[in-house]
Amino acid sequence: MKILIIEDEYDLTEALIEGFRSCGYIAEYALDGEQGLEMALVNEYDLIILDLNLPKLDGLKVLEELRRHSQDQRILILSARSSVAERVEGLNLGANDYLPKPFAFAELEARVRSLLRRSYIQKDSVLTCHGIRLDTNTREVSVNGKPLALSPKEYAILEYLLLNRDKTISAETLIEHVWYSDTDYFSASVKVHLSTLRRKLMSACGKEIITTVRGSGYLIRSED
């Protein structure tokens, strides 16, 4: 999952980037509203964390512009503006959640997970399919009760394909959601990680789990 953090406090931004990356997210940032809006409109993000007190372009203006372009983008406001009226204004303008500063990172990460589940119509934090059990809270994977060791990138690919099961996902879409925005679309990285993941799943499950749809992308089908 890929997150954009639009926050002008550099020390806080660094801490959030480190925290989210340690949890396995792809986390990028912008330090002002103009840059944040541009990044949000050019790239695909699963969720945006938005401060309101931003230089160059106020956070509420950023929110309005984002909503003008997309009603589906998940946006969580993280701001020192914590009065009831200000929270209501942010939510009325289209934010999906509002967490006032100061805050605990554990609560922020839990809210992010909750919003991401909603965006994929996922009620449970555990994804299951073909004997695979993937816990999005602990980031642990098992097959038929036996732990399966995956690299962070292999885990991210498997999570995204399971969230989108029965959909063909192109290599470009995988890069948008699982790699950083400056990754070369022609990089062999996707194929290398997919190949390793497929071998591990084949060994653990005894069958092919990820199907290649020629000319289109990759697919995990639901069980019959």
Order of helices and strands: EHEHEHEHEHEEEEHHHEE
* Helix run count: 8
Backbone CA Rg:
18 Å
Helix content: 40-55%
Q: Main beta sheet: strand number and arrangement? A: 5 strands, parallel
* Overall residue-averaged pLDDT value: 88
Tell the overall outline. Answer: elongated
Q: What is the number of strand segments?
A: 11
Describe the protein:
The protein is an alpha/beta fold. 42% of the residues lie in helices and 19% in strands. The chain is built from eight helices and eleven strands. Strands 2-1-3-4-5 form a five-stranded parallel beta sheet, with helices on both faces. Strand 8 and strand 9 (146-147) form a beta hairpin. Helix 2 (33-42) runs parallel beside helix 3 (59-69) and helix 6 (152-163) packs across helix 8. The longest helix has 17 residues, at 189-205. The model has no long low-confidence stretch (mean pLDDT 88).
